[in-house]
Give the backbone structure.
Amino acid sequence: MPPPSPGEELPGGATTVFDTTLNAFGRALGNMEPARWRTLHEGKALFVRDWSAPPHALAGPLTNAQACNSCHFKDGRDRPYDALGPEAPLLIRLSVPTAEVPGGAPEPVYGGQFNDRGTPEVPAEGTVQVKYVPLKGRYADTTPYTLRRPHYELTPLGYGPLAPRTQWSPRIPSTVFGLGLLEAIPEADLLARADPEDADGDGISGRPNRVTSVRTGQPVLGRFGWKASQPSLEQQIAKAYAEDLGLTSPLYPESTCTPKQEACRSVMQTRGEPALPAELLEKTTLYIRLLAVPARRDWSAPAVRRGQALFQRTGCASCHHPEFRTGEVADIPELSGQTIRPYTDLLLHDMGKELADGRPDAEATGSEWRTPPLWGLGLLETVNHQLRLLHDGRARGFEEAILWHGGEAEASRERFKRLERADREALVAFLRSL
Ligand code: HEC
Ligand code: HEC
């Protein structure tokens, strides 16, 4: 086994925090200037604020939730399990292919996202139904496993049938810590890992998503979301305010009702379109940028170290790239020059037919997904009381997540399936230590 590299246990470098509790994802950068506490608390208040609650109800009539933390509970990726049952919130993105808009245009009646919450005057757009069908398989050593293949239906549909050829993409919330660091990885270092034509012949291509910056109108590198379709935290968050919570902002000033949603339009005409002031968008963004990555646990245990070597050997690290160094961050120097271990390349990979949603997103195809960071995932169960993985939460644990890998990751998955049980367990022990 190679010796551990220095700082292995500190995935966020000097920003790393030490917390293994329910609050592990909600801590401020370990090296944060004390002067920022006030801003942090203001941002957090916005993150947990119920925008539909009187007396200052702002949220539009068609939404998916009332607060950021209804979906990113404790800055993680779920609702509180005990309160709402076993299924996490699922967002459904909608689009209709067209030659004019790369990635497709919003569905004409329902818009770019299916809103499953309405008000007494404005009915919800409908309900997402998920059914799981068992899919059985075996490891090379004949140990059986059962995956669950999801089938989605949007029913009932509150505003009539979807336009012909509508494409949709189910997505569970991502965790929201460590993102200031991911935003600070120099673009050139990410692009250096791209190999769109697979010139090195390892079966893994990896390419950047190119998306439009709403601030400048220019094409820029996408980093956030399951398909890397948002270029910055500010834009990702402004979009969440608009689509999930029904609040416009200076970045997304258009009405959150589509032109064909008359009940929604007429409420807006009497009430006025709810608009989030620029200052509050900025504070929410700052809050997210200041959320730290928790330190690893048991990182030096022999089984974990062996699992780490297997992670390299089975090819996981080709996409889940272990290490980057952040560039200069002028307004939050605490994020600058950190050696970080996110286990992602932030690039798009073709993950095969089984994981495909068939819906392009900016330049991502219907079978491409961004490599998600693996840091902190070992604490997901502690924070969110359940371990649901992959873009639609179909995997109920690390093994299942790996077994769904296909496309560019198929060879890696097959190597995992050929491992002996003790080695598979060591690899999972490594993932749990992250
Ligand atoms: C209805 C559930 C829901 C609500 C409410 C919600 N989000 Fe999200 N969030 C998601 C989903 C789903 C994704 C993944 C989106 C994608 O793939 O396009 C996401 C992604 C993100 C990301 C990007 C994470 C990454 O790793 O790329 C950030 C940051 C984020 N949300 C912040 C917020 C903030 C701030 C709010 C409140 C203004 C909010 N979200 C409200 C569901 C939600
Ligand atoms: C070709 C690139 C590639 C390779 C190789 C690869 N992965 Fe992944 N991995 C991805 C992508 C892309 C996703 C997201 C897929 C999705 O959500 O549908 C993912 C998702 C995951 C997830 C779920 C993360 C989450 O946030 O839900 C885990 C865990 C994971 N990979 C572990 C591994 C392990 C362990 C290996 C090696 C056996 C591996 N991966 C090999 C690209 C890769």
